[in-house]
Amino acid sequence: MRDLHTIFSITNQKGGVGKTTTALNLGAALSASGKKVLLVDNDPQGNLTAALGFTQAEQKYTMANLLLAAIDYPEDLELHLKRAVLHTEAGPDLIPANRRLADAAARLQVMQLSQYNAVGDAERSCEKIMDKLLSHLKSGYDYIIIDCGLKHELLTVNALTASDYCIIPVQAHFLASEGIPDVLELVKSVQAKFNPALKIAGILLTMYQSRPQLCRSVRESVGDVYSDTVHVFKQPIEYSIKVAECPAAGQSIFDYAPKNAAALSYRGLAEEVLRLG
């Protein structure tokens, strides 16, 4: 594999599809394979932060601080970056988030509406703030994985603008798979306007059960509809109650239940991601 500093966004505009779980466990699997990984919580709910054992409200330095610093005090960004990156027991580093990230998202909206440009050049447009922020961190990591929320589309647009790839988790039932066109349309828009190098790494089926016919039918349906234009990961993520339990313990699935079927699934996903390079 060539020397890469690769950024992934985990995104879907539907909830409950496993975005945070995928960000956490993919990051942990890549870390276990010897890669230096940074996880970025890009959701004001702070679910990724909580899943790694941190109390969101107690975090003094967060993604919100970094975005606001990148807008208002870019010359001081390096200082803020050192304070915001946390080390975790799961392996990857973390930039945490909490409800203050919604304030940063509102600030981005003000920039967008007013066409305000913080430093006077197009590269500081409101859609490219995260790209500039993460450019200071890329050299220190093999992989940066961004967990995107449901609301605050400008935060997701920022993440996609900063990313090399995106992964689209989809719960393995028909209603969840209906959300795929909306994500593809957003990705297409970002590619056209802000990041022509952005690629879709693939659609990832989550909460998959090998035996039920419904899951197998969804897998076949997603493959039939999208495989000609979008990669569908070969390894779906097996459903397991352990996946739902491990965030309460502040652990990845590899620490909580390393022999579980879902752990094997995430290792398989990590192997596919490693081969992208």
Low-confidence stretches: none
**Total helical elements:** 13
Q: Which sequence of SSEs, written as H and E, runs from N to C?
A: EHEHHHEEHHEHEHHEHHHH
- The secondary structure category is alpha/beta
Q: In angstroms, what is the radius of gyration?
A: 18 Å
> Which percent bin holds the helix content?
40-55%
Number of strands: 7
Seen as an oligomer or otherwise, the chain set is single chain
Q: Tell me the distance between the termini.
A: 6 Å
Spatial order of strands in the largest sheet: 3-4-2-5-1-6-7
Could you give a short account of the major beta sheet? 7 strands, mixed
Strand content: 5-15%
Mean pLDDT across the residues is 87
- Described by the principal axes of the CA atoms, the overall outline is globular
